[in-house]
Amino acid sequence: MLVFVINKHGQPLMPCKPRKARILLKEKKALIKSYNPFTIQLLYGSSGYKQDVNIGVDLGAKHAGIAITSEDKVLAKGEVELRQDVKTNLDTRRTYRRSRRNRKTRYRKPKFQNRRRPEGWLPPSIQSRIENTFFWIEKYCALVPDSKLTIEVGKFDVQKMIDPEIQGVAYQQGQLYGYHDVRYFVFARDQYTCQVCKKKYKILNTHHMIYRSHGGSNRADNLISVCTDCHTHENHQKGNIFWKWMVEGKKLPQYKEGPFMNTFRRRVNARYTDAKITYGSITTPKRKVLGLEKTHANDAVAISGISAIKNDTQIVFQIKQFRKKKRSLQEATARKGRKTKNVTSKRNEKNKKSSGGFYLNDRVILYGKTGYITGFTGASGAYVKTIDGDYITIPNKSYKQVSLKKLTRIGHRNNWQLEYKAFG
User: Fold this and answer.
1) Taken in order 113, 114, 115, 116, is the CA torsion positive or negative?
2) Among 146, 172, 291, 312, whose CB has the most other CB atoms within 10 angstroms?
3) Is the CB of residue 420 less than 8 Å from the CB of residue 297?
4) pTM for the full model?
């Protein structure tokens, strides 16, 4: 892992080795400018020796790969994990808001004069992923001198993916064209086969993957074909097959990424006019020539344009965004037996940003493992997860709460988690 360097005027220089950075910091010739990623700033004048630096970016709907290369060396590479929970959080907020309007709580009338969307508007879930990707692209571009940016984008024809023979006016007719209703479309899509017992030509029902009582819709992507022998009350109960489908997810054909990547491509072309644009059909052969495994980070290395790798970094960075603030004050379901009107809302004791000197998303050590505080319980407990989303618990115990006294804080984080992992 190399350390990024900027001179005293704020201009980026070539990265240096950690040993060199330690010497500069110890001799008071540099100071720490940033921890995320680790960057030092020189306190004396230096123009520095500069090389040609290339940055490759592998765009994706859930992960983005970034790699920095120079000549035959890989200076840094890693992945950025994009948030996928924005739409779910907005739906939850909408549910709370509509529920409040029917209770004796703070009341705000619905607004009907603020529905005009500005030009270039995107749904918040898409806007969040695009802006976060652009943030880290520009962050790393600002840390190296005279960088040349190459970005891999995707171009998808979703209707062609669904029906390879589609052409002409069929593009305007949609998937359900020619079917009596969505129910018969679902049967045809599943080839009149029960998705539980896999038997054909039985009496079929359409089953909601996510129950309507849990917010599921009547759209085709939430319906699946199940025969009458399998569509039973018992299978709907908690722990049985239908419940597992709802909790763990049942894999159905999804085409959400295609439209998102098409939108992403247009935004990239408008923002990075000087960047070189490439496609996956070009990247894959290059990666195989370099002898790299299939990962977003390695794809970014191939995208950067490096022709041969003499020195490859053994450290990969992993970046993940953390939803730090939870702004909802009210309960989802009002408490029964309330003696006084709920005219003043108070934040739930567990819904707070700090406790005992610790803050949400602080990086801590617990039982020899590194993790991040994702929530608090009571006045002296917390939940700690690794960057991969696994709870760190007390050895030989199953409950997730841990005492704040057991935590050792490494550093304070805002909304981003960044880890360096060794491989190879």
Assistant:
1) positive
2) 312
3) no
4) 0.81
